[in-house]
Amino acid sequence: MNKVILMGRLTRDPEVRYTQTSNTVVASFSLAVNRRFAKPGEERQADFINIVAWSKLGEFCGKYFKKGQQVGIIGRIQTRTWDDDQGQKHYVTEVIAEEAYFADSKRESEAGSSFENTFGNTMPGGMGGSDFEVSSSDDLPF
């Protein structure tokens, strides 16, 4: 099974391009994903993971994702190789996105995207999007 679930912040706006043969949308971006633990006295480390989203998901990411936003990505790891003009072989490992979600809190997103405020916190067809909301002044029963 090849399944990856990541949550991190975009290091740059997605770069959107189109394939030459079929004019398919491809969005590429990088996520800074914090490591779970930090050594005592050191800052938490992050891994920078390349993400590729195709077709409608690529359009969605290109249109609504911005640098600094926290997002969730579900996809698969893929490796590929190619030879450059000098005959040097290059290897790359990337995550091919199959699902993408907004992961910023409501408070953080209020100053940001109006899409999140209008349509909920996930892309259409995604998980989440609950109507349940708790403000800081609500009394919780637990």
Outline of the structure:
By secondary structure, this protein is mainly β. The chain has helices spanning 55-64, 106-109, 114-119, and strands at residues 4-10, 15-18, 25-34, 46-54, 70-83, 89-102.
**SS elements, strand count:** 6
The residue-averaged pLDDT reads 82
Sheet with most strands: strand arrangement: 1-3-4-6-5
What portion of the residues fall into strands of 2 or more residues?
Answer: 35-45%
Q: How much helix is in the residues?
A: 10-25%
Q: Can you tell me about this structure?
A:
The protein is mainly beta. The chain has a single domain, classed as Beta Barrel (OB fold (Dihydrolipoamide Acetyltransferase, E2P)), CATH 2.40.50. Helices cover 14% and strands 41% of the residues. A five-stranded mixed β-barrel has the order 1-3-4-6-5. A hairpin with a 5-residue loop joins strand 5 and strand 6. The longest helix is centred in the middle third of the chain and has 10 residues.
Layout of strands and helices, then pairs:
Blueprint: E1 4-10, E2 15-18, E3 25-34, E4 46-54, H1 55-64, E5 70-83, E6 89-102, H2 106-109, H3 114-119
Parallel strand pairs: 4-6
Antiparallel strand pairs: 1-3, 1-5, 2-3, 3-4, 5-6
Quick tags:
mainly beta; 3 helices; 142 residues; OB fold (Dihydrolipoamide Acetyltransferase, E2P); 14% helix; globular
